[in-house]
Amino acid sequence: MNNNLKIKLSEISEIVGGKLVGDSNVIISSLAKIDEADEGDLTFLYLSSYEKFFDSTHASAIFVKPEFKKTRSDISYIEVKEPEKAFASILLKFFSPKFELVGIDKTAFIDPTSSLGKNVALGKNVVIGANCKIGDNVKIFHNTVLLENVEVGEASLIFQNVSIREDCKIGKRVIIHPGTVIGADGFGYQKDEKGVYHKVPQIGNVIVEDDVEIGANSTIDRAALGSSIIGKGSKIDNLVQIAHNVSLGINTIMSAQSGISGSVKVGNNSIIAGQVGISGHLEIGDNVILIAQSGVSKSITKPGIYFGSPAKDFKTAKILEAHFRNIPEYVERIKKLEEEIKNLKEEKEQNKG
Amino acid sequence: MNNNLKIKLSEISEIVGGKLVGDSNVIISSLAKIDEADEGDLTFLYLSSYEKFFDSTHASAIFVKPEFKKTRSDISYIEVKEPEKAFASILLKFFSPKFELVGIDKTAFIDPTSSLGKNVALGKNVVIGANCKIGDNVKIFHNTVLLENVEVGEASLIFQNVSIREDCKIGKRVIIHPGTVIGADGFGYQKDEKGVYHKVPQIGNVIVEDDVEIGANSTIDRAALGSSIIGKGSKIDNLVQIAHNVSLGINTIMSAQSGISGSVKVGNNSIIAGQVGISGHLEIGDNVILIAQSGVSKSITKPGIYFGSPAKDFKTAKILEAHFRNIPEYVERIKKLEEEIKNLKEEKEQNKG
Amino acid sequence: MNNNLKIKLSEISEIVGGKLVGDSNVIISSLAKIDEADEGDLTFLYLSSYEKFFDSTHASAIFVKPEFKKTRSDISYIEVKEPEKAFASILLKFFSPKFELVGIDKTAFIDPTSSLGKNVALGKNVVIGANCKIGDNVKIFHNTVLLENVEVGEASLIFQNVSIREDCKIGKRVIIHPGTVIGADGFGYQKDEKGVYHKVPQIGNVIVEDDVEIGANSTIDRAALGSSIIGKGSKIDNLVQIAHNVSLGINTIMSAQSGISGSVKVGNNSIIAGQVGISGHLEIGDNVILIAQSGVSKSITKPGIYFGSPAKDFKTAKILEAHFRNIPEYVERIKKLEEEIKNLKEEKEQNKG
Predict the structure, then answer these.
(1) Nearest to B97 by CA among A279, A165, A211, A240
(2) Please, are residues A84 and A102 in contact by the beta-carbon 8 Å criterion?
(3) CA C1 to CA C91: how far, in whole Å?
């Protein structure tokens, strides 16, 4: 964090278009969570579960919703509709980390057939294979390896220990976190009559479009033929698996430990939550939300929320889950019915007798 | 892909033992998926869901099944029983990537007590610890680390940023993708009376037999004692976890994000699909197929297909899933029965009265 | 393993406080599993499923429970209450691996503003960024990268290809296995009205307390603000995901491929088994055990065992699972009831007629 920053609260209020209540001359030097804030810190409140910290916070100022009861006079308030967003915008504007890396380290290797743009920074032991094209203002941290024919668009940021295999294309302003592997062979084999698996060469590549972010230790396999594609603006978390020939749409989210099997197409603006799995050759449409741990074995083209393994539409899944918890009661009701039928039949027998 | 290749279609047809329909002099220079193919490309059709692309493909030739309706005259056909296999064999024969790496880079470190076979290639910053034995024609890419006493059999290919810890043995023709860790300590502790965990030293190793392939960012832990074993010809996908003292049979498949707990034995020719988990100390037999996301908490020795968490035989699992979806209907039927019983009882009371 | 060790069995018996039955002069040179043991090996028996190996083991000595039937006279016994613990203590005392790494390799880079304690060992191509503090007796293996302001406490062991990002603090006697990433950005975005995601800067850090062990290829994200915390003595397996602002208690276990979403607090002495997932902003108390593949979508504050997705208390989950398997029978009973009602009604109609 930038440790020497001093910003007047009135300036902050103006930037976010908020209403300042309290001392507009307060100087903000840092941001913090409400339960950890100290003098000079700006904080925010948007989840009611954090309100319990309001009485004791040491923050100097706080973003709150207009309706929030301002019971303390030793703290300044900025009223905004969405405190979280206001806070994030100040974080972005004044406290963005710099990811400092300057120049080309002398231990970095650049194949002479490759070209670097202006102002590229390469860390220690970086390897740039043959015929790569690295755009302006790209930063590649230590021990990262790019094999031949890789392209990286301008202003992209690639952290340490990343592997990008031959022929893969990385767009502009892409961020790739440590340990991620792009372009490993897809998992493709032919089984012979003896049950022995023979590798099918994987000769496609991976295309990562502009503004994508990929978390740590994720894996995106190259296509068998053609390209595996991560659409513009999509965000991928840690330990995510994307198989060969997958195509992910625009502005789609994949949370940690989710996985997509081969040749799946996912649309735009969809959300694949943590530990979700999608079987091969399926189609997932736009605006589909898959809740955590769901398992998808059939295509889902209708926008909506889905849950379960196998996945069902969320409303149905919730009803079924409630029924599931009630089964013991249903069984009791069946037992009671059986007894009553038995009684009715016995009575009838007696009446006959 | 090899960009200068020119093969006559008649030659291709002969290799796969197919029947050529159309112009046998067509020259093939590349392979492509049907929806991406261009002039000079050979493609194939085996899934009916891709038939919609047939009318518009620009491919020059196509592998099809004999019964396929050859409605276009501007394209040449090779009829084969299994178009996918024929295509893969041509891919393998003419378009296999070379994974070019030649010689021993001057930044690679080889401990003087280690021995290298003929024609070994070591990339930049590779570390080969003490007493390692590296076979002929092995390629080890950049930044990969082998600690002491590691053996790698001939013609194995180890990509970048791989870690192989001390004493592990890698067979012949093994492929290990980037970021994979072989031989990390197993997860073993003794808990004392205060609830503090004490590490149990893990002094075994990992043995990877011949012709195994291991995907990116997977982890195979060393045995506590003895060996964790990956059997000959088995194929392991990305982000797979294999715990200490696991033994995997021959020609067994583990798909992405699946995991096996400690001391599990898995047989031959089995398939463990994506995100499957297997609890510790179990036995999984030969020819067992575990469908994606299954959780196995009891040994499975009978060949067959299994699904669910906890896993059940697939037929049962499908019946239960259908019932599960029907529970709301069953509850309605119970309600109706309750009403009818109530009516019957009321009528009887009235009759008595 | 130390190959030149020779220990008298009587000495071993004394150390573990056991009762020696047989030849006290037997010399032990190694430890092994019962089915793999050879002459000179000490082994142990605690699971009844391994007793089948007793008749044929070549071990020279064995830890057994006092009640074990000592049917062989060519083997020496040490009776102890807990054979597994006795074995582990001998393993720990005599056979602990040394993880040999000595001195600072000339290819390691240490920023001049960083400080190293006594007896630090740095492997090849290690990168230590600006303003780091490395404690006494720390070992950092090859190709590991620490960015600026990282602290590592004394006697910690960091294996190869590990990434620790800026500002993270690692305690004393911490072990980090290969490929693990500590301090990558948390997965935090603000979505604008066009559906475009904007990155929220992640300016916190990760604090790993003393005596923690972290497996291979795991990921622990830095906090958005403040710290993600791994409590003292906690043990984390391979391929585990810990999101931003998570706080893990003391002596808590996370098994392989489990994952915790953002801002979750987990208590002390809890166990999170393999492939478990926990949704964001929840609280998991002390002494909570989550069985493998469970999915937690609500806070769990009561100690106990939980299972399922969504997770239920284990006793309930077991009852529900049994009912689930019985649904076909329940449906049969409903059908039978329907028939009987139908018969009763028909009979009544006939009686009326």
Answers:
(1) A165
(2) no
(3) 10
Which DSSP string do the residues of A17-59 spell out, in sequence order?
Answer: T-EEES-TTPEE-EE--TTT--TTEEEE--SGGGGGGGGG---
Judge contact between B111 and B128, C-beta under 8 A.
yes
**Residue whose tokens read 């296509």:** A223
Q: How far is it, in rounded angstroms, from Cα C138 to Cα C143?
A: 15
Q: Which three-class secondary structure state does DSSP give residue B326?
A: helix
Q: What tens digit of pLDDT does each residue of C226-262 get?
A: 999 999 999 999 999 999 999 999 999 999 999 999 9
| Distance separating alpha carbons of residues C241 and A216, to the nearest angstrom | 10
pTM (predicted TM-score): 0.95
User: What pLDDT does residue C353 have?
Assistant: 59
Residue with tokens 């067509």: B26
- For the stretch B237-259, pLDDT in tens is 999 999 999 999 999 999 999 99
- Name the A residues in 252-291 with CB < 8 Å from any B CB: 257, 259, 261, 275, 277, 279, 281
In this structure, what token pair is assigned to residue A234? 């999509």
The string over C67-92, giving b where at least 16 C-beta atoms fall within 10 Å of a residue's C-beta and e elsewhere, is ebeeeeeebbbbbbeebebbbbbbbe
Distance CA B84, CA B67 (A): 15
**C159 CA to centre of own chain:** 17
Which of C221, C323, C344 faces A328 most closely, judged by CB atoms? C323
- The mean per-residue pLDDT over the stretch C212-232 comes to 97
The label of the residue with tokens 């499957």 reads B276
What is the tens place of the pLDDT at every residue in C29-51? 999 999 999 999 999 998 888 89
Residue B48 DSSP class: G
Q: Mind listing the pLDDT tens digit for each residue in C91-115?
A: 989 988 888 898 999 999 999 999 9
Q: Nearest C-alpha of chain C: how many angstroms from A304?
A: 16
pLDDT of A301: 95
Taking an 8 Å cut-off on Cβ atoms, the answer to whether C197 and A92 are in contact is: no
Strands A219-221 and B283-284: unpaired
Q: What is the ipTM of this complex?
A: 0.93
A352 pLDDT above the threshold of 90: no
Query: How distant is the Cα of A132 from the closest Cα of chain C, in angstroms?
Result: 23
Active-site annotation holds for A244: yes
Asked whether the beta carbons of C44 and C84 are under 8 A apart, the reply is yes
Q: Are strands C241-242 and A181-184 parallel, antiparallel or unpaired?
A: unpaired
Tens-digit pLDDT profile for residues B78-93: 999 999 999 999 998 9
**Cα distance between residue B32 and residue C28, in whole Å:** 63
DSSP H helices in B150-242? none
Inter-residue contact A110 to A93 (CB < 8 Å): no
pLDDT value, residue B201? 93
Report the helix count and the strand count for chain A, using DSSP H and E.
3, 39
Instruction: Look over chain C and give the mean of its residue pLDDT values, rounded to a whole number.
Output: 95
pLDDT at C3 over 80: no
**What are A110's strand-pairing partners?**
A128
Residues 6 or more apart from A63 whose CB is under 8 A from it?
A16, A18, A42, A43, A44, A45, A77, A78, A80, A83, A86, A87
Mean pLDDT of all residues belonging to chain A: 95
| Direct distance between the N- and C-terminal alpha carbons of chain B, in angstroms, rounded to an integer | 93
What distance in Å separates the CA atoms of residue C278 and residue C184, rounded to the nearest whole number?
20
Lowest mean pLDDT among A24-28, B233-237, C199-203, C344-348: C344-348
Q: Which two tokens stand for residue A29?
A: 């030097």
Comparing CB atoms, the residue among C32, C213, C309 nearest residue B225 is C32
Q: Which residues of A218-253 are buried (b: 16+ CB within 10 A; e: fewer)?
A: bbbbbbbbbbbbbbbbbbbbbbbbbbbbbbbbbbbb
Contact flag C125-A123 (C-beta cutoff 8 Å): no
